[in-house]
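Researcher: Sequence recovery benchmark, item below. Answer with residues only.
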């Protein structure tokens, strides 16, 4: 064990940093004891604090568990980018005035959002909204595209699903990262089908699968296919996707898409077909 713990800085005649092109993403922070009242939270990228968690920390404070908060110093203001629950809990205790903080000088919220993502990467998974907000603040292209699409139809990103929000952010982010052009083409139809109702993952994933597997030169937003999708409507498309999922005893974009295509082809002489599926 002692040998394994020894520092090894080189491989052969080269330093590991040089040999493997290891990166140094930012500069070291400085440990300081800061008054709890000067600490702020930037809501652009931070997840919303959980009240029960704050109360739990305040009721039974542990300095060992507290450790040090990670704080960004931006133009003389201190923003907590890791440890907001601890900071909020400390505010409720009269016996705590200062908190141990590792302070990093940053250029702005974009750099802090990137640090927030890195600090939380290997911890308890962030929910979809927290990841999305941080990625948007950090100006990740996929997040900016998703934000643009959501706001273009008068909706907002949210943890709740309704006729004016979008909750399936992780799904949209995945499509935006892999095939942004497919998401952009199909989104107006998805939004129209779901108008006044939640953007259901099965409808979104199914229509995107159809868009991605139609014969070359065709699109789900072509006049005929779009007319069929709107004729079947939200409930019809979702019901068809659910029936196929039950019949196949599994879900997934392909299964949902096949059910939706069958519903769209019903009563029509010319059938929509998908690549590798003669009957859709």
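Model:
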């Amino acid at each position: 064990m002692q040998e394994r713990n020894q520092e090894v800085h080189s491989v052969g005649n080269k330093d590991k940093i040089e040999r493997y092109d290891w990166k140094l993403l930012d500069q070291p922070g400085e440990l300081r004891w800061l008054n709890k009242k000067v600490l702020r939270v930037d809501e652009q990228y931070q997840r919303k604090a959980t009240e029960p968690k704050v109360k739990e920390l305040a009721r039974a404070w542990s300095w060992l568990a507290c450790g040090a908060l990670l704080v960004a110093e931006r133009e003389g203001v201190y923003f907590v980018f890791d440890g907001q629950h601890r900071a909020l809990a400390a505010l409720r205790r009269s016996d705590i005035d200062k908190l141990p903080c590792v302070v990093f000088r940053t250029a702005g919220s974009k750099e802090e959002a990137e640090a927030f993502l890195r600090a939380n990467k290997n911890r308890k998974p962030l929910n979809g909204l927290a990841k999305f907000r941080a990625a948007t603040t950090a100006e990740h292209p996929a997040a900016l595209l998703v934000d643009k699409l959501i706001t273009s139809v008068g909706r907002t990103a949210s943890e709740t699903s309704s006729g004016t929000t979008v909750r399936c952010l992780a799904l949209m982010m995945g499509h935006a990262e892999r095939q942004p052009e497919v998401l952009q083409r199909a989104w107006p139809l998805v939004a129209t089908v779901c108008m006044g109702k939640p953007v259901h993952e099965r409808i979104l994933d199914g229509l995107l699968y159809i868009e991605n597997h139609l014969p070359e030169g065709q699109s789900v937003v072509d006049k005929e296919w779009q007319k069929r999708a709107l004729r079947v409507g939200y409930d019809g498309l979702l019901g068809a996707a659910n029936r196929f999922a039950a019949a196949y005893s599994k879900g997934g974009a392909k299964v949902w898409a096949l059910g939706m295509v069958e519903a769209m082809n019903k009563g029509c002489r010319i059938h929509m077909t998908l690549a590798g599926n003669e009957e859709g």
